[in-house]
Amino acid sequence: MKMKLHPIKIITAILVIFLLNNIVDMTEVCAAEDNKNEMDILLVENIDIQEVSSLIQKLDSDINITEYEEVNLIHVEYPNTITSSEIANNENIKKYIEISGFLPEIVVDPIDLGSISSDSISVENEELDSASSVTNEQIFKRLSWHVNEVTGDGKSLELSSGNNTKIAIIDSGVDYNHPYLKGKINLKNAKSYVDSDSSILDYNTHGTMITGIIAQLAPDATITPYKVLDASSGESLWTINALIDAVNDGNDIINMSLGTYKYTNKENEKLIINAYKRALRFARNNNVLVVASAGNYSLDLDSQYEVNNILHLPGGVSDVYTVSAVSNKKLASYSNHGYSVDYCAPGGDLVYENGYLDITACMYVLYPTYIDNGLATIGIPQGYTFSYGTSLSTAIVSAGLADILSYCKDNYKFYKVSDVENILKAGANDLGEKGKDSLYGIGEIDVYSSLQQADDLILGSIEKDSDTTYTYHNDTMSLRYSITSEYENNYQVEIAVTNTTKETIHNWEIVYNTDDVIESIWNGKASQADGYTVVKNNGYNQDIKSGETVIFGYIAVKEDEINIPNEFNFTNYYSITPANYEINYRIDNQWDNGYIASIIITNTSDVIIEDWKLDFEFEENIDTLWGANILNHDDNQYTIINNPSNYNILPGESVTFSFTVTNTKGEQEPGYFELLSTVTE
């Protein structure tokens, strides 16, 4: 279809109707239906979830249970012969329950645009004015100023377009027959969680908008929709389920252009807060990047949290990238903000030019072809519309991450997810106060700038200091490579590696490109294959603190000349440990308003758990801790990491760390433990 688009004006009333129909913010409300005999239960510890399910089913044979083992969540459907209270308060069951209740509905809530004083709008566009006729896809491309803004006018797409990456979109489905999307959607793994609707088709419109933006910026990525909304609402449980499935399906990136606001001091709302936190942590610990919107109510999220105890989810908590929206390099009028914001991206806005509302300052997006867009009278073809919001900004960041990840897969054999994150960060344009701020986070993403800096960050640079000494730098290390002696067919090398990051590098392993055979090595262990040498720490030197240096050396055999490496990388990262383990908790001493407690980790497997790290939930505030270190504390989420005396847990052995709690809330026990260890390639 071809269409001639002229400059036009239209009364504001039409604009308001169109925007209210098409610009939405997804919020969740705590409104369970009274007639539903259903409940959701978060379990407190890493117990056998099937054991708890069995205990519940013994109460009534007609009880149906769905288990979400990854987050220790169970969904219970029970008959009229029993009540939720009888289940939750059963003596054999209640000791395993952290929180019970019902995860709330998801509804589509239109943004309140307020009054618009102008009585007309304009869709004038210089490029379109000069064209006598253009196709719908050409219009889509020409009006995609947001793509140009983050890709260097499309130059980044010449370097990377998302090939060999997988993006999950948790939303309202998609019009997969849309001419622009046809053949770009992975229907094999696509799922609908909506009751009585197994279709992936989008009857809400939001999911199609998000998918279109991602398809523009990462056209070669594999896009999989996970439908959790029908035309107007859905269930939070579906969202949690979709997040878990998206991780288990092998997606690299999960886009969640949705949000909710919950009171942290209300017991009935802690269920959804903790369920989201667990699911997001599950994704992060599996090295899956989750991107979520900041929200569209112009709220200061920090103030809402500090004054009103309101928390924004999922953007606003740990283990997710939260995105605000900008327009013309400034925070969009509607965008939420707060220190939880990590990045910003174009989102469109209401902009007036010469008394007219310039609708092209909004973003031109896809729309389901089987739903009337209501814009035929102003010449906008079916299948397209205008919109704005942090949801759209979030899609841009997700696609940008996919392009960077694809570039890493194509160019760096030993890349890590943290490399992708560092490349994104390096290219971001700092728009606000220097450094990370509450409006723009680290800054507005610029995929082209990021990719231009990628080689320097990952491959680094090498300088020849002398005939026998070379210095190498990348974003994590400074390395000195020194040939200390050379004789016949052998030579001796000393390598000094300095950690230039702000964090400790745990259980270090380094890889570099040389195939000269190593005959002997000290202060490390070597393996060689396919032209690369991998050197791993020797146990006693496995951590490199910020600014500190480790030294190892070896004797190698040369052929004609010494094969001088020019690429060095750390390869180790944290992931969920594959080893079996047990966690035990005990109270060692207590007094009126406090106590001393210990957590014991036992390795029940036959492999070493290397450089362990423990995540858990705990409602108390830990005052002092010994035998380990607190790496992170966010609300009720703790991350504890080993200290030099107990790096590794040998098979059959245990490590113990202890802590004090004062001003106790009533001996709250920690729960939902997850043990991580470093993985090396």
TrEMBL record:
The active site is at residues 171, 206, 391. Residues 468-580, 574-681 form the CBM2 domain. Belongs to the peptidase S8 family. GO terms for biological process: carbohydrate metabolic process; proteolysis. It comes from Lachnotalea glycerini. GO terms for molecular function: hydrolase activity, hydrolyzing O-glycosyl compounds; polysaccharide binding; serine-type endopeptidase activity. The keyword Kinase does not apply. InterPro entries: CBD2 (IPR001919), CBM2/CBM3_carb-bd_dom_sf (IPR008965), CBM2_carb-bd_dom_sf (IPR012291), Peptidase_S8/S53_dom (IPR000209), Peptidase_S8/S53_dom_sf (IPR036852), Peptidase_S8_Asp-AS (IPR023827), Peptidase_S8_subtilisin-like (IPR050131), Peptidase_S8_subtilisin-rel (IPR015500). This is Subtilisin family serine protease.
